[in-house]
Amino acid sequence: MSLCDDSFGPYAAGCRGGFDLTLLFEESILVVPINALLLLAAPCRAVYLLRKNTVKVQSSHWLYCKLILCLCLIGSQIGFIILLTQSSAVITKASLPTAALSFVASIGLLGLSYVEHVYSYRPSTILNLFLLFSVLFDATRTRTLWLQGYNRSPATAALVATVIKIAILVVETVEKRGFLRPQYRALPPEVTSGIFSHWAFWWQLPLFRAGYSKKLEIESMFPPAKHFKSLYLQELVQTAWDKSPKKEGNGLLLTVLSTLKGPILSIVFPRLCFIGFTFCQPFLISATLEWAEKDSDSDDMNQGYGLIGSWFIVYVGIAVTTGQYQHLTYRAITMARGQLITILYDKATDINITAADPTASLTLMSADIERIDTGWRTAHDVWANLVEIAVAVYLLERQLGVVCLIPVGAAIFSIVGSVIAVSFVMARQAMWLEAIEKRIAATSQMLGAMKGVKMCGLTDVLGARIQAMRNEEMHISGKFRRLLIWNMVLAYLAPIFAPILTFMAYSVLAQSRGGRQ
Asked: Where are the transmembrane segments (predicted)?
């Protein structure tokens, strides 16, 4: 065995053109963790499903396909271990433990595949993710074994195991809607689809096809999932509101956040992944430029294939994480709207008309909730932008030195200006919403007494009054929108002018130092 493969590496310098990982690194870092995670997650998931003890599917050939493929995988893992123990095989100190762990994981895969198929109405997320990463990592190790040249028998067994895992991955991604029990067939596609369908939004294709061929109606929509039904949302928020000791100030906000903490926190992970993929781009650009400057006969030219794969992974990752981040954000917004509108409706129907103006609830259901909706769309950008700023400033400092403070200063100026402008915007917004409430109240009162209005001949008078109130409302909203535009201008000053000022300062500083930087 080459000494590079028995070292941790991770890069196998001097082996296989220098563009490879060491076998020890692949076994200990790529193969072992993914199998260990499956062995930790499989019992927990199996116990959770077995406690429900509710069979979700009817008998089908897909179960037998899964079981047969899993048994074939177990057999290939046994063969791989036997071939590794032969005297002709050259292995690392982690090869046998890794192979044994993979064998145990394949047994766990068999058990979890059966439980997931019978007791779940959607493809297993755990199995799909495990098989996806396991195929990628096993393919890397198989390539290394094959390129070594002296481990062809273990390499062949590893190749067979990888191909079987690909087949298992294919059958595990098949949705079960066609053989679900009758009581579960009415579930929406979002609930019964797997993680890959969620990533690519394939579960929406039936709706797109229906919209392409005919006019969409309410009946064309998918049935709502349990978590989006009004009764469920009302019971959830009403129970929490009744238990809340604080019913003034931010009490309602805290109640809604407490009931939706799961959907809100689920947005964090894809947002962090999006940040990671975004900041991979400057490193890849730098690596690509360095590779392009090398001679065509250099030993490092194979790195170009790695760069192609890296760019593919980054842009696919950006697309997937952006879609998931936005999708989960709007899911949380929809649930929040459902909670607020249901409790507003409940309050409006029970309110004492002599104690308060019931028409105020109409404004809350329209303009106020629309503003809440708009604000929640960018709520996670607050902490995410702070993380991005910190990472970006660090990367700029590595390349530009003290000049990195210029975009920071521009950002601070933009933030301070926006904060000052927001105070005026909020005041104008409050005046606009108050004008809307007055107009709706007057309109509601007139419609409620329409018979008397017509008898007294006041239709034109009251119509002109409501039109005047509408004109006043538009005048007030015009001031609000102008301030909002100025606020947007201040917010976009930093992204537009910060790069220009930074490069100008960097050029001046480089010239003052005689071209050395």
From this structure: 29-50, 62-84, 96-115, 127-147, 153-171, 264-285, 305-325, 402-427, 484-509
Can you give the pLDDT at residue 17? 56
Of 418, 417, 390, whose CA–CA distance to 404 is shortest? 390
For residue 201, give both structure tokens. Answer: 């939004």
Q: Which residue has the higher pLDDT, 514 or 341?
A: 341
pLDDT bucket at 344, cuts 50 / 70 / 90 = confident
Q: Extract the tokens encoding 377.
A: 């769309």
Q: Angle CA(33)–CA(38)–CA(48) in degrees, nearest 5?
A: 145
Q: Does residue 207 belong to any structural domain of this protein?
A: no
Q: Is 233 exposed, middle or buried (0-12, 13-18, 19+ CB in 10 A)?
A: buried
Task: Count other C-beta atoms under 10 Å from residue 500's C-beta.
Answer: 11
Phi and psi at residue 86, in whole multiples of 5°? Answer: -70, 150
Beta-strand (E) ranges in 48-138?
none
- Going 336 to 338 to 341 to 347, the CA torsion angle's sign is negative
Q: Is the pLDDT of residue 26 over 80?
A: yes
DSSP-derived secondary structure for 234-270: HHHHHHHHHH-S--STTHHHHHHHHHTHHHHHTTHHH
User: Do 350 and 310 touch, CB atoms closer than 8 A?
Assistant: no
* Residue 352 scores a pLDDT above 80: no
What are the phi and psi torsion angles at 180 (to 5°)? -70, 155
Q: Please give the pLDDT value at position 223.
A: 84
Instruction: Summarize pLDDT for 72-84 with one digit per residue, the tens.
Output: 999 999 999 998 8
The first and second tokens of residue 496, run together, are: 């537009």
Is position 457 within any domain? yes
Domain limit, last residue, from 363, 378, 393: 378
Domain match, 172 and 233 both = no
Q: Cβ(125)–Cβ(45) under 8 Å?
A: no
Query: Domain with 469 in it: what CATH number?
Result: 1.20.1560.10
For residue 278, what pLDDT is reported? 94
> Can you give the residue range of the structural domain that contains 361?
224-378
Cα 188 to the center of its chain, rounded Å: 20
Number of domains in the chain: 3
Sign of CA dihedral 170, 176, 178, 179: positive
Structural domain contains residue 212: no
- Residue at a domain's end among 161, 187, 213: 187
Is 54 inside any structural domain?
yes
| pLDDT at residue 112 greater than cutoff 90 | yes
Q: Which two tokens stand for residue 16?
A: 């296989």
| pTM beyond 0.90 | no
339 and 388: one domain? no
Confirm if 389 and 494 have CB atoms less than 8 A apart. Answer: no
* pLDDT, tens digit (0-9, with 9 covering 90-100), for 478-498: 877 887 788 778 777 777 888
